[in-house]
């Protein structure tokens, strides 16, 4: 019986990469056009949302999005969430309709095909490089001026399996304060169980996400960064414990 579980998990992982790759191959010419101008990013974002939903449904995930507050069209936000799975990207794209740009690890740009579009549409950061981290602020500032939002997983990586929620880095909160944009915390309840970074694990089932009430940055200064960080983390941590 255990052998069949391992066979299932092995095939399930392969199926995930098939679902990731197939729409990119089919839509490759359209995707190329959509990234040829920065002003066309909202169109690319719509395609990315369709890609994300295709993967979640194809993996047998029954996603449910609860929203305590809705982002307004045309406004910029800082979207943050706990990070436990490769499917976090897909669930974030599914949960949020406002076009946003991911700030993500530079290593993901090495993934064949996916990496080609990832490095041309996301803000890449090498966390071991101070220069790279500083460049993130400049690129994010440019995107915010274009009316887009930013999405960061503030744990700075995927924590070990036994850690419910790691400490948050300050970057997302400094950026939000500097640009006076609200923090929008999201909690992903089931992604670790459904499809964690442990190879032999996971399976179809429910995948819940909750968009919490926004946290305003109006009137805050850079000295309030730590307080904003802790308040945002507390919202997500309390929800994780409640699920």
TrEMBL record:
Residues 77-191 form the Phospholipid/glycerol acyltransferase domain. One of its GO terms (molecular function) is 1-acylglycerol-3-phosphate O-acyltransferase activity. One of its GO terms (biological process) is phosphatidic acid biosynthetic process. The chain crosses the membrane at residues 12-35. It comes from the Bacteria. InterPro entries: Plipid/glycerol_acylTrfase (IPR002123). Keywords: Acyltransferase, Lipid biosynthesis, Lipid metabolism, Membrane, Transferase, Transmembrane, Transmembrane helix. Pathway: Lipid metabolism. It holds the Pfam family Acyltransferase. PANTHER family: 1-ACYL-SN-GLYCEROL-3-PHOSPHATE ACYLTRANSFERASE, 1-ACYL-SN-GLYCEROL-3-PHOSPHATE ACYLTRANSFERASE-RELATED. This is 1-acyl-sn-glycerol-3-phosphate acyltransferase. It comes from Jejuia pallidilutea.
